[in-house]
């Protein structure tokens, strides 16, 4: 048994990863870049992908139903309206609620997770306004 666990340990540690300083050396940022905990985690739950694509799948189902009921023009018109609404945004440093998109989808009367825990003051988007607009326009 002890020999089997030793061979497992030997198989999991790559020899190339060990440096001259030993196996307890710190992470080398210059050679390997920043570490990402997300990349080191175990595979995600099978439902995670389904939850990420929930709105896309729901829109697809609604478009199929609308096509079967009213014809091809109805989902095409709604998709064009979705595209037009998504293009209208505030300046890059301001939080956008996308209320028009929520109204088109019928989510304007629903209270969800993002409505309560999506505080704009804690947003990662906040920054130097002039630099963010110049970056968005491709001037930087």
UniProtKB/TrEMBL annotation:
GO terms for cellular component: cytoplasm; nucleus. GO terms for biological process: proteasome assembly. Coiled coil: none annotated. Keywords: Chaperone. InterPro entries: Ump1. PANTHER family: PROTEASOME MATURATION PROTEIN, PROTEASOME MATURATION PROTEIN UMP1. Belongs to the POMP/UMP1 family. This is POMP protein. It comes from Centropus unirufus.
């Amino acid at each position: 048994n002890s020999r089997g666990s030793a061979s497992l340990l030997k198989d999991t540690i790559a020899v190339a990863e060990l440096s001259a300083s030993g196996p307890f050396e710190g992470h080398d940022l210059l050679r390997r870049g920043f570490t990402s905990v997300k990349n080191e985690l175990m595979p995600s739950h099978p439902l995670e992908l389904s939850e990420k694509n929930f709105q896309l799948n729901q829109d697809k189902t609604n478009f199929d139903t609308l096509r079967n009921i009213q014809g091809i023009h109805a989902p095409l018109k709604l998709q064009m309206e979705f595209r037009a609404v998504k293009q209208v945004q505030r300046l890059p440093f301001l939080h956008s609620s996308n209320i028009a998109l929520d109204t088109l989808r019928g989510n304007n009367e629903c209270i969800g997770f993002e409505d309560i825990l999506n505080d704009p003051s804690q947003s990662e988007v906040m920054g130097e306004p002039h630099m963010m607009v110049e970056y968005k326009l491709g001037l930087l």
